[in-house]
Amino acid sequence: MKIDEYLSKMRGGAKSPPGVSLSEVLWSWLGSAAGIGICGYLSSRYFEPRDMTLIIGSFGASAVLIYAAIKSPLAQPRNLVGGHVISGLAGVACYQMFGSNIWIAAAIGVSLAIAAMLVTKTLHPPGGATALIAVIGGKKIHDLGFLYAFVPAGLGAVILLIVALLVNNLSAKRRYPEYWM
Asked: Measured at the alpha carbon of residue 158, what is the angle toward residues 32 and 136, in degrees to the nearest 5?
């Protein structure tokens, strides 16, 4: 391939996506406010006093997918929950094996999470952040060990999913999920 052919690929070619209605904006806002709010409340009230957490940064990206891009294959329940749990396991394992070299643990943890999600058909981009948080999250996260994959990653994803099921189906024009498995 010639360099000009290679560089021409970077121009793109598709049109940008259309705008969304105010109704879509409001439903997406409501779902994300409720989902993240519930996780945050439960975390501060019940989990943090026990040196745990129920909220991690990657849930912000999950909220974008499951409340605003609800038709995306990356936003479906299998991907949401499976992606977070599998990525959490990958991140913890890599931290435990390579934690003395954080940059190695981070690189292998994220790439292992991506490979595992692809193999298990649970690709959920925020899972990459879930794996990375397992490595760089600090003592509180590291002390959870493999529990991190289930609480906060798995349980938080399930709470976000329940809210997505309730809120996304209130509107006659929205339907979630597209499929379960």
From this structure: 80
Cis check for the bond before 125: say yes or no (omega within 30 of 0): no
For residue 130, the Cα-to-chain-centroid distance in whole angstroms is 7
Closest to 88 (Cα-Cα) out of 64, 65, 38, 122: 122
CA–CA distance, 39 with 55 (Å, rounded to integer): 6
pLDDT of residue 17: 86
The per-residue pLDDT for 137 is 97
Instruction: Give the helix ranges, DSSP H, for 1-154.
Output: 3-8, 22-42, 58-68, 77-98, 102-120, 126-136, 139-142
Which residues are CB-contacts of 160 (< 8 A; sequence separation ≥ 6)?
A: 35, 36, 39, 59, 62, 63, 66, 80
Q: What pLDDT is stored for residue 1 in this prediction? A: 80
Low-confidence ranges of the chain (pLDDT < 50): none
Residues in the chain: 181
- In Å, the largest CA–CA distance within the chain is 60
For residues 107 and 95, the answer to whether their CB atoms sit within 8 Å is: no
